[in-house]
Amino acid sequence: MRYKRILSMGLAAAMAAGMLTGCSSSAQENTGNAASGAGDSAAEQVVIQLGYENNPGEAIDLGCNEWARLVEEKSGGTMKIEVFPSSQLGAKVDLIDQMLAGAPVITLADGAFYADRGVPDFGILFGPYLFSDWEECWTLTESDLYADLCSDLEEQGLKILTSNWIYGDRHILSKKPIRSLADLKGMKIRVPSNDIQVEGMQVLGANPTPMALGDVYTALQQGTIDGFEQPITVIYAGKYYEAAKYLTLTEHVKNNTTWICGTDFFNSLTAEQQQILIECGEEAGIYNNEQYFQQEEEALNALKEAGVEVIEIDKDEFREAAQSFYQLDKFTSVWSDGLYDRVKEAMGA
Does the pTM of the predicted model rise above 0.90? Predict the structure, then answer.
């Protein structure tokens, strides 16, 4: 696929030139850190905690372990990433608060969360049915518009390390079938705790119910929710199909994910350490994406074998309903002028 070629070429070019591009361009601005880090402190091992909601064995988890391996190898053991899957370090919002306080923590997040953290324009990237395919997504992340958004987020205390990881196409797993937009109306669908995904599900007629992913299995069992939305690989790895037997292939969000740390922590690293952290994250992202596409097919087949009914829908009626999201005054009143059109242009649509 084109995105693999682009990312592989981009990574090789960045490593050969010894410089970082896109959202990582500010690493060169911190070259003074290399001098200030010389001496005894430079010899101390930097230990970073990498926390995420996904379970062991998922593509994201495999990618994180690859990231940890690459960092330790390329730093000669002077840097170490400790991985904590399955929300072991807490919910995403808690980790973001920790990194804003200066903790050496990394987690994955998306534009929807960044909209709630001081960069409203970032939220549109997680709007329903924004992207038609992955090519549009990668084109956008390589654009000047995206680089500007990353810079704005950095001013809010959050540093994007890499944006080339696929989290997956998001679909709905539910306890009763969804065959049309009408079937979704009023259903309690779990979404992450951010305004973008809450409103994105609401415009499709559902009753969005924010909660941590770690609470979803029990909520399905107890009937607190009727369903939730995640990529197929996450649905299978978490065994959520044991509590809900209908998978509707809505593909309402093409979810690439980004990895972030606190700006203060990032700036405390030497320029060399920053470069290692980012380049290894990009390389691990390519590995994650390869694992994702393999696991997605395997997971879909396994879900069918486990008795899950996989439902194909007419996406056109869902896309049509989703267009109202981009006219919501709640967002347009805080988005910059002409944002939707500028994003579409930047993604080549």
Answer: no
